[in-house]
Amino acid sequence: MRLERGVLFISQDEMKDLTTNLDNKVVKALQIKVDSYQTEVSELKEILEKKDEEIANIAKYKDAMSSELEETKSNLEDKTNKLEKIDSEVYDLKKTVTIKENEKNKLCAELDELKQKIEELSNEFAKKENIITELSEELTKKENKITELSEELTNKENKIAELNDTLAEKIKSIEEQKDKLEKAETELSAIKPPEPTEYTSEERLVCPKCGAKGKDLKVEEDKSKVLGYIGHSPLYAKKNVCKKCGEKF
Fold first, then answer.
1. Rounded CA gap, 102 and 109, in Å?
2. What is the pLDDT of residue 99?
3. Could you give the angle at the alpha carbon of 15 between the alpha carbons of 14 and 18, nearest 5°?
4. Tens digit of each residue's pLDDT (9 = 90 or more) over 159-182
5. Which in 16, 64, 184, 247 has the greatest CB count within 10 A?
């Protein structure tokens, strides 16, 4: 090996030795790299196997998650349907509540009117009760008065009955006396002597006020004096009346 004019000249043997040495170095370097690559490949295979296992696990997890997701979606759909149904029921309930509130307000208004009406009726009833109480008291008084009058009427009826009995006895007595009087008059007429004068009993009567007599006098019933009863007809006393001056005696 020599250097001439800046150019390196190598012989064929030197080139062969150099090539052999270079090839050995390159082979060693390449072997080292190959060994390193094999080690790295082994490591990468292990990593790849782990990754494949992880991927398989992830796939299983994905399948499980997909199944769970489908179940969740189904549950969510059911829940959504139930929620929609509940929303519909809530809407219907709100409508019902609104209707019931309106009915309640109407009933409350009617109740207030009824309370007012009841109060008015209670006041009127209280007035009627007072009137009834007053009328009852008045009725009690009248009943007591009627009782008193009934007792008085009973007493008077009893008295009238007694008087009727007494009157019947007196009428009977008067009729008996009348029969006796008529009998006596008949007997007296049979034995009566001639009248001594031409004057009658009426002609002997004289008005004490004006002196009138005879035809100027008349006889009337004195209805202020009842002598008795013949049946139901009263028997009055007699009185003289002057036709001229109206004097009664």
1. 11
2. 92
3. 85
4. 888 888 887 888 787 777 777 776
5. 247
Quickly list DSSP for 28-73.
HHHHHHHHHHHHHHHHHHHHHHHHHHHHHHHHHHHHHHHHHHHHHH
pLDDT tens, position by position, 197-212: 333 444 468 898 898 8
pLDDT of residue 11: 57
Do residues 207 and 215 lie in contact, with contact meaning Cβ atoms separated by under 8 Å? Answer: no
Q: What length is written for the chain? A: 249
Q: What is the pTM of this model?
A: 0.31
Best mean pLDDT range from 137-151, 177-191, 224-238: 137-151
Q: Report phi then psi at 182, rounded to 5.
A: -65, -40
Cβ(220)–Cβ(238) below 8 Å: yes
34, 54, 55, 177, 199 from 48: Cα distances, Å: 20, 9, 10, 174, 192
Amino acid at 189: S
Cβ burial 123-138 (10 Å sphere, 16+ → b, else e): eeeeeeeeeeeeeeee
Judge whether residue 244 has pLDDT over 60: yes
- Residue with the bigger pLDDT between 7 and 67: it is 67
